[in-house]
Design goal:
With 150 residues, the chain is mostly beta strands. Helices cover 11% and strands 31% of the residues. A hairpin with a 2-residue loop joins strand 6 and strand 7.
């Protein structure tokens, strides 16, 4: 298992303001127990991403996909028909799984498709106007007050 330790001492520095929410998310992140099913994360544009999950043998109604409080949960229940078959070799694992991905607050799910055993989830980073950079003019309190009230 590959573990990385995060040095949180730097967050006590006065230049890191408001990172407590991020630190709480890191501390409560769900850790995967295995690497099934395999997946890819691709950056497809400046603000778009593609999450691909290899899901051979699954159909659309086997999936339960949910986005809640910044965690994308993909759960799939395998339909068990193995009892009827006598395998000489079984190399394709089709078992139930649950994967979780922690997303930034500004990431939205655009589209989900299942094609040829590949589940594709298109994501987009949608930055609201309130989070975009703003020019702050030098001025009196009235100017700063107007910026804060926007």
């Amino acid at each position: 298992m590959n573990t990385r330790r995060i040095n949180t001492d730097m967050l006590n520095d006065p230049f890191f303001i408001g990172f407590d929410k991020m630190l709480n998310k890191l501390n409560t992140t769900y850790h995967q127990k295995d690497n099934y099913p395999p997946y890819n994360v691709l950056k497809t544009g400046e603000n778009t991403y593609l999450l691909e999950i290899a899901a051979a043998g699954f159909e659309e109604d086997n999936f339960d996909i949910e986005l809640h409080e910044g965690v994308l949960r993909i759960k799939a229940e395998a339909s068990h028909t193995d009892e009827l078959e006598q395998y000489l070799h079984k190399g394709i694992a089709m078992r139930s799984f649950e994967r979780r991905f922690t997303l930034a607050d500004t990431i939205e799910v655009n589209d989900v498709t299942l094609n040829q055993g590949m589940l594709r989830i298109r994501l987009e980073n949608v930055i609201p106007e309130s989070k975009k950079p703003k020019k702050i003019p030098i001025g009196g309190r009235s100017t700063i007050g107007q910026l804060l009230n926007e």
